[in-house]
Amino acid sequence: SKKVLETLFELDKNLKILNLKIDLDELINNHRYKILNFALDYVSETIVKAIPKGKRKIYFSPFGDLNILPLHAIEISNDNYLIDNYEIVYIPSLAIWADLSKRVPNFTESEASAKNLYVSQDKGNQTICYDEVIACQEILQGEHQESPDTLKFKKAIDKQSFNILHLSVHGVADLKNPLNSGLIFNQTQLSILEIQALKFQANLVVLSACESNLARTEGADEMLAFERAFMIAGAENIISTFDSVDAKQITLFIKSFYREIQNGVTLSKAFQKSAIDTIDNDSNEWMLFRFMGV
Fold it and tell me: Per-residue pLDDT tens for 81-106?
């Protein structure tokens, strides 16, 4: 693994990465999953040994740089991963998880199931985002807001209750001041601080950022900042990604996930089944999705 790293990166004497030797696109297309697997191999033995026997669901609360590793993709044996054997749920912190567990929705399941909101960029400028939402909406029906600005979006969700809030919009990162990072709605930005101040209820928020991925930031904590902010605002569960994912793969994964929900399985089980389906199709993209919730 050291040889591979030395081929791809300039390293200091402590093997800390200084610079990239190859083109970023080449790294993503040809080497991303090799690097992920090297990192997962490093922590796999410790994590697998810590899992009690007889359990079917695992909660991970990673710290620091572990936040950027898809721990559900740890390989237990040849082509057999943690996600094959367990429902995997990530939690932002024990304190937030405990608070989420105490929340009692003030709407019935039947009311919530009829209230799904899909938000996308407009069809003319962002066809991929728009098409993703239309494809998902065919499985689970709901209202579609096309290219709202920040004010219209905030009004649409203020003090409202949703089953699914699906956001297929741009994400932008401010590395110097992460709290200024945000989502772009029709050329207006909704910052992390503004997201955190929102008041709504949602059984599930899907963060599907077109072209610029929410997780493509410097350091692990900022990736979590979006998820934490939405959970503080009122989301009970979130699907997001660790890194940039091909738009078509996002649509395929989320469509599979929504079909499982429609069949009545729990969110964590639906995530597990969708990941396994993707593994069976010989795609590595499943590693980059994660489910966070209660």
Answer: 999 999 999 998 777 777 777 765 55
* pLDDT tens for each residue of 136-168: 999 999 999 988 999 999 999 999 999 999 998
Q: How confident is the model at residue 122 (pLDDT cuts 50, 70, 90)?
A: low
Number of domains forming the structure of the chain:
2
Same domain for 174 and 276? Answer: yes
73 occurs within a structural domain: no
- Is 237 among the domain residues? yes
Q: Which domain does 116 fall in, by range?
A: 98-292
CA 116 from chain centre, in angstroms, equals 18
Question: In terms of domains, do 113 and 21 share one?
Answer: no
- Do 156 and 29 share a structural domain? no
pLDDT digits (tens, 9 = 90+) for 164-200: 999 988 877 776 777 778 898 988 999 989 999 999 9
Report the CATH number that the domain containing residue 154 is assigned in CATH: 3.40.50.1460
Instruction: Say yes or no: 215 and 285 in one domain.
Output: yes
Helix intervals (H) in 176-246: 192-197, 220-233
Read off the DSSP letter of residue 235: B
Q: What is the token pair recorded at 103?
A: 């929340």
Contacts of 28 (CB under 8 A, 6+ apart): 243, 244
